[in-house]
Design goal:
Length: 278
């Protein structure tokens, strides 16, 4: 009846309202996050599986909201993409990440690659390659040490447009990684149509590789990617068993909590020193 129905409708509305208020707070907060210095980059080391040495770092953005506390990028990046704040945030991330190079020269650890996640909106921006080139020259980072991570979901709108932009970027000398590989619908289609240097196998292809048969697809993807002269990166490596299998399959690069969590900037120098002195 009507009386019984109403309360549940109200409860539903309250939750919906709460979600919308939370979202509005995030949207509003994002506009000030940069000017209030609330963003920070963490860097997760990536390892060459054969030598066991650090080959680079992936920059991962963190947001400390003044009232809500830590907000994960998984939550705020999609909002920033919707309201366009990802453009200034993305440039800030790129600059900060490239600046890390100067710090590494001091350690000294000059050949580490810096990987930066790029959103669709940035890739669609025709000025993006100019911004990248400017940031490279300002920070002194050699172009071949910058890797831009893109996902296939951003290519679906127009692969041709994306391809033109990616070629402009590779002409600068930077390298392109296809991130979250295997989570989309037409991944294989992109492999030889884009100027790719690396493919990052999504965590979901690493999680169960130790179970019987589950690893077969992963092993085949690694081989397929390498046959196309693209390096294979495994992310989300959490156990020695996974690492062992990936080594057996000659995957090129590994990243994951087993090897290192993302590090704060202040932790990097100590981390590198520890690594290179082994
Ligand atoms: P992603 O690019 O796939 O980044 C890898 C995520 O996996 C990171 O989460 C990282 O902390 C986490 N991770 C690393 N090792 C492991 C592991 O062994 N196991 C598990 N379960 N997870 C692991 P994070 O930092 O929360 O970032 C989430 C996503 O947010 C990223 O996924 C990326 O898509 C996006 N993101 C982060 N920073 C940026 C940025 O600066 N710009 C853009 N556009 N997106 C970003
Ligand atoms: Ca990534
Ligand atoms: Ca990924
Ligand atoms: Ca992702």
């Amino acid at each position: 009846t009507k009386e019984q129905g109403q309360p549940s409708i109200m409860i539903y509305d309250v939750n919906l309202l709460k979600n919308q208020i939370h979202r509005l707070k995030l949207e509003e907060g994002l506009l000030q996050a940069l000017s209030n210095d609330e963003l920070e980059l963490h860097f997760q080391p990536q390892f060459n599986i054969h030598s066991g040495k650090v080959r680079g770092f992936e920059a991962l953005v963190r947001w400390q909201h003044p009232k809500l506390g830590a907000v994960s990028p998984g939550e705020f990046i999609p909002i920033a993409e919707e309201n366009g704040t990802i453009l200034p945030i993305g440039l800030w991330v790129l600059r900060r990440a490239c600046e890390l190079y100067q710090e590494m020269l001091m350690v000294p650890f000059p050949e580490a690659v810096i990987s930066v996640n790029i959103s669709a909106l940035q890739l669609n921006d025709s000025y993006f390659p100019k911004h990248v080139s400017q940031i490279l020259s300002e920070t002194g980072l050699p172009p071949h040490l910058l890797e831009l991570e893109i996902t296939e979901s951003m290519l679906i709108a127009s692969i041709d447009a994306a391809n033109i932009r990616l070629k402009e970027l590779t002409q600068l000398g930077v390298r392109i990684a296809l991130d979250d590989f295997g989570t989309g619908y037409s991944s294989l289609h992109y492999l030889n149509r884009l100027p790719l240097h690396l493919v990052k196998l999504d965590k979901s292809f690493i999680r169960d590789i130790c179970k019987n048969n589950e690893g077969r697809i992963t092993e085949s993807i690694i081989r397929l990617v390498q046959d196309l002269d693209i390096q294979a990166v495994a992310e989300g490596v959490e156990s020695y068993d996974q690492l062992y299998l990936l080594k057996t399959w000659k995957c090129d690069i590994v990243q994951g909590f087993l090897l290192s969590k993302p590090l704060r900037e202040q932790e990097i120098a100590a981390f590198i020193t520890k690594q290179t002195s082994v």
